[in-house]
Specification:
InterPro entries: Aldolase_TIM, NMO. By secondary structure, the chain is α/β, with parallel strands linked by helices. It contains 13 helices and eleven strands. The chain is globular and about 50 Å long.
Length: 307
């Protein structure tokens, strides 16, 4: 068994969390990951409602028991999403992409540990001062919104700079990837892209097909989809997505917002967004999330046993 701080503290069998992917990670995906021995996380994006959190939390709990909820800290101004997340009584709450300090005490008062994804050492120090319990070093290989530093350099830098338990995210899609970050000193990993072709994900069907056809060089780091959809992400975070006709035409262009909004079509695979990371080339078949998680953990254990 791959026993780490993560498995001991969260009471899970495998040192794997599914990433809280907004628009893709609902209750079924989270539940299947937890059922398999990891911890599945719901992705509560800015446009998520409190009712959605309550409904999907119930689904996750029915399938897998434990689950987590990931929130975008910059979007929590009115407090309703955080209130809903706390009320759902998850195993862990993620407060990422912004200073978690205004919210950590409320989560801790409910007896829930706090996880924070960071993209720089300065982010880590901010989260550390806020009193979070777990750091996730999310490298720029990750799908969706992320930073610019690669996973391995960031992970090494963060491990040297903090005494908090650290997880790794970004580009981890096989047992080799999990073994690598565990050997480096991480307590576990967040998996995202590798789960996106699973039937338990939500979102358009074409997103799964496009991921299965993509290679690891077929992504682009861009803010053009946020601009087109009027998503007010802080400027420092772009999103890694699969390239398509929309990115070819508008990425790094000077087109105004109105034209981008008119051109964007979420129902068209050539014009809609599919956030995915540089591990896309490792996703070649649609498989259930639970089987993926168990296979990755088993292979990592085999590799680590060599030492």
């Amino acid at each position: 068994m791959l026993e780490t701080w993560l498995t001991r503290e969260l009471g899970i069998a495998l040192p794997i969390l599914s990433a809280p992917m907004g628009g893709r990670a609902g209750g079924e995906l989270a539940g299947e990951v937890s059922k398999a021995g990891g911890l599945g996380m719901l992705g509560a994006a800015r446009y998520t409602t409190a009712d959605w959190i309550a409904t999907e939390s119930a689904v996750a709990r029915d399938i897998g028991g434990a689950f987590g909820i990931g929130l975008q800290t910059w979007s929590l101004d009115d407090g309703s999403l955080l209130d809903a997340a706390i009320a759902a009584k998850p195993t862990v709450i993620g407060l990422s992409f912004g200073d978690p300090a205004p919210y950590v005490d409320r989560v801790h008062a409910a007896g829930i540990p706090v996880l924070s994804q960071i993209n720089t050492v300065d982010d880590m120090r901010l989260a550390e001062r806020a009193g979070v319990d777990v750091i996730v070093a999310q490298g720029g290989e990750a799908g969706g919104h992320t930073g610019h530093i690669g996973t391995l350099p960031l992970l090494q830098e963060v491990l040297e700079a903090t005494e908090l338990p650290v997880l790794a995210a970004g580009g981890i899609a096989t047992g080799r990837g999990l073994a690598a970050v565990l050997a480096a000193g991480a307590e576990g990993a967040l998996l995202g892209t590798v789960l996106l072709a699973s039937p338990e994900t939500i979102g358009p069907e074409y997103a799964r097909d496009r991921l299965l056809a993509a290679g690891s060089g077929d992504t682009v780091y861009t803010s053009v989809f946020d601009q087109a959809r009027d998503q007010p992400w802080p400027q420092r975070w772009g999103g890694r997505a699969l390239q398509n006709a929309f990115t070819s035409k508008y990425h790094n262009s000077d087109v105004d917002h109105a034209k981008l909004a008119d051109a964007y079509d979420p129902a068209d695979p050539n014009l809609g967004v599919v956030y995915a990371g540089q591990a896309a080339g490792l996703v070649n078949v649609a498989r259930g999330a639970g089987a993926i998680v168990q296979d990755i953990a088993a292979r990592a254990e085999q590799l680590l046993e060599r030492f």
